[in-house]
Amino acid sequence: MSDVEVRGLRVELTDGRPIVRDASFALAAGETMGLVGESGSGKSTLALALLGYARRGSRIAGGEVRVGGTDLLSLRGRALRRARGGLVAYVPQDPATALNPLLPIGVQLTEEMDVAPARARARAGELLERVGLPSDAAMLRRRPRELSGGQQQRVAISMALMRRPRLVVLDEPTTGLDVATQSRVLELVRELCAEENDAAVYVSHDLAVIANVAQRVSVMYAGDFVEQGATARVLRSPAHPYSLALLDAVPSVRERLKLRPIDGRAPAVGETGEGCPYAPRCPFARLACRERDPELREVSPERLVRCIRAEEVLDRRSEATRERAEIRTSFEESPLLSVRGLSASYGGNAVLHDVSFDVRRGECVALVGESGSGKTTLSRCLIGLHAEWDGGIRLRDVQLARSARDRSPEARRSLQYIFQNPYASLNPRRTIGASLRVPLEQFSRLDGRETRRRVGEALERVELPAELADRYASELSGGQRQRVAIARSLLCDPELLVCDEVTSALDVSVQASIVELLRSLLDDGLSMVFVTHDLAVVRSIADSVIVLDQGRIVEAAPTEQLLDAPREEYTRTLAAHTLDLVR
Prior knowledge:
This protein is of the alpha/beta class. An eight-stranded mixed beta sheet has the order 6-7-8-3-9-10-12-11, with helices on both faces. It has a six-stranded mixed beta sheet with strand order 18-19-20-15-21-22, with helices on both faces. A four-stranded antiparallel beta sheet has the order 2-1-4-5, covered by helices on one side. The protein is globular and about 70 Å long. The model has no long low-confidence stretch (mean pLDDT 90).
């Protein structure tokens, strides 16, 4: 008998439009299932429903979630609260949302335990040691703000396991972590689920992560499972066109490939019609696909696919090859940006030490390293958002002032910054058009008609329709917002973009479209400093790489040379921890 059984689970908006339509699966004790799909596919909604929870404006409309024989959806009040943590536990993407910033770690770990305080503290100490953290009194007295992001995530995992639940739901717990920390957290999840004999559902948009942590995978699209099966088989030989398209968008750390974003967009809640929801984007679609939504059917033992052409997709995948991308080698001799002897600090605490490098016109230089290595501080120094530095930064032959406000309008126009979080980089009270007009008002004097024309051109350049100018940021997806942020920077006609982890939180298809867009800008002669912890993305876009460790450059070389034959042990460690799905 399965330890976890989900049957006919349906979540819908209060007006009846379905978000998750008919989710069914079973998990044995100690088994992990990966849940993948684009933003809006229903992954996180399904994950929360496994705890008997629905976000405001939605409700669980039907089905069963049985964990250890108990149907969570039949519980109410105190019984449901006790089941959350006792039968099923949750690890969020951002550990800061799981930890109270005001309470010591020890209090948070033990506060829900119905055992003697000494036993609760012993259990907390045992789990902290197993996640690689100290279990002494000093650690238990720490507040979350005194821990790094990776340490906070380990505490959140320990908290989820405190009451020995039968099911653990992990909602993108490694998104935003550097490769070394991500590798350690994934290894921790595997080991603890096996040792505690917990079933787990691991939600992620990163297929390489799912390949590393899950024995089985379920692919979601428009609220439905479109493919389910053993992870190795589904990711090596997908039978649904959507699964195949996701794999074609994944970058590889081993070779530079052309990334293929999925055409069109995923349907919003309530937009699906009579036929297959994926048909408008599917190269395999036929008239029959648009007339009826196919059933989930078995195409081989323990392999379920919602597609009438699954066998053809399997045959096509066996013959398909990924197209390699061109490696660019020629650039101007003289540097566009020159950094010499840059050292930076925060309140007297040194974080960068004697950093020197050049960026030539049309070149993309990647900055990589673990969290705390100094990547973002270096990028903020370049743009003038961090002024506590010594050394020299020259744009062409002009020495740049420390602070952006002290730089000339020409220098501010020539250097533009794209932030990591597309949800925080746009003013929610302004329309997209109003946000895009800001740089034009700052750096040019155009009349209203010319301004509207330039805004429309900027949106089209990043492959967005001009009519989006009248919408607000809340009406756009994360990928669309990131494209708007890029469009805003391009309106200044910059010479160099500083991109700070601009793809880290994006779906693989959206990431692929952003990488290909940035590639086209490089071909147009734009230069870039690309901050990232993802070496597969580095292989896809960067011409050269600078590796930072504790604020110092430990290795710098052309991308192919550095990734194929790293010379320094630190670089080899980063490469070893990088997960690669493409073989």
